[in-house]
Write a structure and sequence with these properties.
Rossmann fold; globular; transmembrane; Stimulator of interferon genes protein; alpha/beta; single chain; STING_LBD; two-stranded antiparallel ribbon
């Protein structure tokens, strides 16, 4: 649009009856046209770039909670985390009591008494986290089941998995025990993108924005809930590096453990070497 405006202005100038302007254009007309066209093209690129960035964020932000990411966060929080994390004061145990029981029953020490939830930027979470850790991790056991009657389903069960992490993948070293899992709504979101639904292309286009909205809203919900705030650790991360190589999720988890436990960089380095 700016290019055409500049072109029209140039034509009008060349047709003017004023002698000096006419002579100026005769001498410098081609050069002036070239400069105007170049400036117009640059401004057009800048405008398109701005509009594209605005489109990528505005459509989701303007939905005021009606977007896919926010909806997933609410569903996951009320339909799962609020059920398995806090102690209800009834026969159902909270996460801390389940962790303490499994430590006593199996003679192990779980590094951090929280549920670690993985939120990869690609939305893909393998069935076994061993696959995403270059075999640094392996499933150890499950926490006690939570059994509830919910939405007409009698005896619906919920449980969490305990994993062992071997630094550097060496089985000779003492492993870290951790309660960890992927955010299951993201796997569903990933599977939706694999099929040719009407919304598939839109979800693919805004995939990272949707996942970020999911993470931000979920963190907001957990942080605002005193019964859950200290029981859950969200880990949002890029599961592929700049070279397209799969990131070792075990290292990502260990980095977070070290941060929580205030392990110094030197001590952390010793664990990896």
């Amino acid at each position: 649009m700016l290019f055409y405006i500049s072109l029209i202005c140039f034509i009008m100038l060349t047709m003017t009856k004023y002698y000096y302007i006419y002579n100026y254009i005769q001498i410098f007309g081609a050069f002036t046209c070239f400069i105007c066209s170049g400036i117009s093209y640059i401004l057009l690129l800048i405008t398109n770039s701005y509009e594209k960035r605005k489109e990528n964020t505005f459509d989701i932000e303007s939905m005021k909670g009606l977007d896919y990411g926010t909806s997933m966060a609410y569903s996951y929080y009320y339909g799962y985390l609020r059920i398995i994390l806090p102690s209800t004061g009834s026969i159902n145990k909270g996460l801390i009591e389940k962790i303490e029981n499994i430590e006593d029953n199996h003679g192990i020490y779980i590094s951090v008494h929280k549920l670690f939830i993985l939120i990869p930027s690609s939305s893909y979470i393998p069935p076994n986290l061993k696959e995403a850790s270059y075999h640094w991790m392996e499933s150890a056991m499950n926490l006690e089941k939570e059994v509830l009657n919910r939405a007409g389903v009698k005896g619906r069960t919920y449980h969490n998995s305990v994993y062992k992490i071997y630094p550097n993948g060496l089985r000779l070293e003492t492993p870290f025990y951790i309660v960890v899992e992927g955010a299951t709504p993201l796997l569903t979101f990933h599977e939706v993108q694999k099929h040719a639904h009407n919304e598939t292309n839109v979800y693919k286009k805004y995939c990272k924005c949707i996942i970020q909205k999911f993470y931000k809203k979920l963190k907001q919900l957990i942080d605002a809930d005193p019964e859950c705030a200290d029981l859950c650790e969200l880990i949002y991360y890029n599961d592929y590096d700049n070279n397209g190589t799969k990131v070792n999720v075990a290292k990502v988890i260990l980095d977070r453990i070290f941060k929580i436990q205030n392990i110094t960089g030197e001590n952390a380095y010793n664990i990896f070497t």
